[in-house]
Amino acid sequence: MLRHHAEGGSADALHQLAAALVARHQHEEALALHRRAADAGHERSQVEYARMLMYGIATAADPQLAAQWLLRAEAAGNPVASYLLVVLALGDGGVHDARFNQRLLAAVQANYPPAVRAAAIHFGRKASAADQVRCLQLLERGAGLGDAVCARLLAERLLHGEGCTPQPEAAREILQQLARHGIGPLPALAVPQLHAPDTLEGALALDEVLRPATAQPRCERPRVMTIDGLLSADECRLLIACAEPNLARSRTVDPRTGQPQSLEIRTSEDASFDPILEDLALRLVQIRMATAARMPLANAEHLTVLRYRPGQEYRPHRDYRPPGSLELDQPQAGNRQRTICVYLNEVEAGGETEFPLPGLRIAPSPGRAVIFENLLPDGRPDVDSLHAGLPVERGEKWLATLWLRQGRYRAY
Ligand SMILES: O=C(O)CCC(=O)C(=O)O
Ligand SMILES: [Fe+2]
């Protein structure tokens, strides 16, 4: 029936048929149908066609062409198009269109949950009491729209009185509702002393993520730096909340074959984020991390979040890949030049990051970043970059890592 209407050229039927095909992973046909509906002026197909172009689904990634389709849908008043234009405009080492704040606002006003979530976390980084209230109001709005991450962040803030007076009763009510959906509490963390942005009160100023925070040098050889308070409590919780359902036993790359393998060297569990699944909030956190490491996000491999339980560790290793193993994973991007890790919670005991050659140990602290070089200035591997995640003795350790290549790795 749908196919009949679609063949007759009804844009709505084309759109629905394409959506059904996406659900069945028949992406090539879906792409063609979304394209036909988009041509016929169907806004939501314009957005979906653009999304497929952004992420290179059943076609080569073409962010520029995606942007053109999004602009058409936005002109017709589609707030998801505005939201995706924000995702496209930020990062890549530069801002291509300065209207991202206005666009995010439009998507927030239309109650698009990922936009509400990103805006809440943005206001939550700001120092003023009024912006903290904005953060709480937006988290509440997101939770009301059914966004479980907003609900979890809100519960933690209410429980600990972050940006408000503690409201344990209200927090418990939210936590009970979440528990009914099988969602547990987040690990406790002390709120980091933030590098709060000096942006205008009440204003969205997303380009703030592109200003690198000042790093403290910790060692010259290998080159290691730390930044305290790079991520806010909300951002640490966001990463944990998004990683938790996707954790699996960590794998390492076999240095001889380049194939992933489970080894005793890395006993943690991890989740890695395909950029397709990234929402704006996750993307902003990654831009902040890449910017702190003075690299464009486009050079980053997929974000990885690790969880170590007592006794789990990452034995001494180096992050650069053995030259042979690069063949299988975007060799044109070069090797892993730099690594940035951010601790996401408070570890009760153990779990330091150790650089055994200079004898340097960095203690985990929520929001603290460790940045280090894996290659020498001439691009050759630096054997001194040997490092380890020491065994956790008590509690859990959550960590986010971006491995940054010498050249472009992602489409945008
Ligand atoms: O867990 C740590 O402290 C180190 C993690 C690490 O070496 C990595 O993610 O490459
Ligand atoms: Fe490492």
TrEMBL record:
It holds the Pfam family 2OG-FeII_Oxy_3. Residues 299-406 form the Fe2OG dioxygenase domain. The keyword rRNA processing does not apply. It comes from the Bacteria. InterPro entries: Oxoglu/Fe-dep_dioxygenase_dom, P4HA-like, Pro_4_hyd_alph, Pro_4_hyd_alph_FE2OG_OXY, Sel1-like, TPR-like_helical_dom_sf. Keywords: Dioxygenase, Endoplasmic reticulum, Glycoprotein, Iron, Metal-binding, Oxidoreductase, Vitamin C. One of its GO terms (molecular function) is dioxygenase activity. This is 2OG-Fe(II) oxygenase. The lineage of its organism: Bacteria, Pseudomonadati, Pseudomonadota, Gammaproteobacteria, Lysobacterales.
